[in-house]
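Hi Q.,

Before the meeting this afternoon, I wanted you to have the phosphoenolpyruvate prediction in hand. No need to reply - just skim if you have a minute. The sequence and ligand are here:
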Amino acid sequence: MTPRLKIIAGNWKMYTTPTEGDKLADELITALAGIDPGNKRIVVMPPFLHIRSIAERFNGVKHASVGAQNCHFENEGAYTGEISAAMIKDAGAEYVIVGHSERRQYFHEDNALLYKKVSAALAHGLTPIYCCGETLVQRENGSYFEVISKQINEGLFDLMPDMINNVIVAYEPVWAIGTGKTASPEQAQEIHAFIRNLFAGQYGHEIADHVLILYGGSVKPNNAAELFGMKDIDGGLVGGASLNAADFAAIVHAA
Ligand code: PEP
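Predicted structure with the ligand bound:
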């Protein structure tokens, strides 16, 4: 089997003005300049407003792309305040996060809606990074395998095999996002192997062996190498630490 890529994606959330975003992007380009990309891909995911400008800045940077943090499921229409996958793609992005736990929690996005968003992203040539993960209560009451299985089944598994090939999964335990608590490499590996196994059951081993599964939840320069060294962890979705160019570059270096 050809080794899987490692993806390091930085989710800027609702941080940085466009001016600050341009500055952070320039700092990142400088910080990443000395790193051999090897089989790594870097994705920067700023707020929508910044995408075009940052995509232009990253244009000449090999192995780096820009992504969005959400999209609407329709191509266009009377959906005031929304942004479609077609618009995101045209602005220069290649990736889009779908189903981040903050969207599930604050905007009540459920698996059925997320399936429509994943489909829209794929239809417009964007690679969706589909997030799943359990809350602290679900971790503690032992229902987390069931929760994750439902999120993956309902959000992804109606896709045809030629489409699922273009999906990336991010396992993000909600209790580890922005809390400074990280899943141990063994805890994360257990869930990543479980997710890969779900893919094998639905689509067969060939597809399961190739699907990229990222870990997210307080990834920092001091824990990245250990997490990314696990067999089924194919990189990270990084929140807080992606807002600091030196930290993000150190995480990329660790991959
Ligand atoms: C995230 O926003 O997806 C995330 C994992 O955040 P943090 O790294 O800050 O926990």
